[in-house]
Prior knowledge:
Layout: E1 2-14, E2 17-28, E3 32-39, E4 44-51, E5 56-62, E6 65-74, H1 76-99, E7 106-111, H2 128-132, E8 135-141, E9 144-147, E10 160-165, H3 167-178
Antiparallel strand pairs: 1-2, 2-3, 3-4, 4-5, 5-6, 7-10, 8-9, 8-10
Amino acid sequence: MFAAVCGTGLAGVRDGYRSEVNVEVTSLPGIGVRKEFPLRRVRRRIGVIDHRDGTIDLIVSRVGNPDAAEQIPLTEAEAAALANLLGAPQLVGQLREEHRDLGGVTTGQLLIRDGTAYDGRQLGDTRMRTRTKASIVAIMRAGQAIPSPGPDFILIAGDVVVVVGTEEGLAAAAAILADR
């Protein structure tokens, strides 16, 4: 097996400071790649095994005993949902921090639900900016931030839309995206 420290990754923004983590990457011959890092507050490690066949397992182990890991297989949809749960709040937190000195500017995240009016439609069809004065600044899809999506971007169920505007604008945006 080959282990390497992948470097530091942004763990989050809290109380105005950034915390960083070293992600360890270990090659698992014939299986895939294990990526994990230690948690500071509890004596555990958390990560994923990215299998060669494209499947992903969530892993949690004790520091000092990585072989005794609890391994939880995730479907593609579950992995995408977990990535969105973890990624969207982090992105919104960073935007809130950047906008905190701008009175009246609010940042929020809105989920595109299955079967809603804009599931499978272009972002431009929402006419969000025109109807609400709120701006869609990013989309979180499968844990990946897609910054500044254009009007031809296709929204799909599970996407988390990151919106910046007034409280009223965000409420109106939520109503539009929840429409069935």
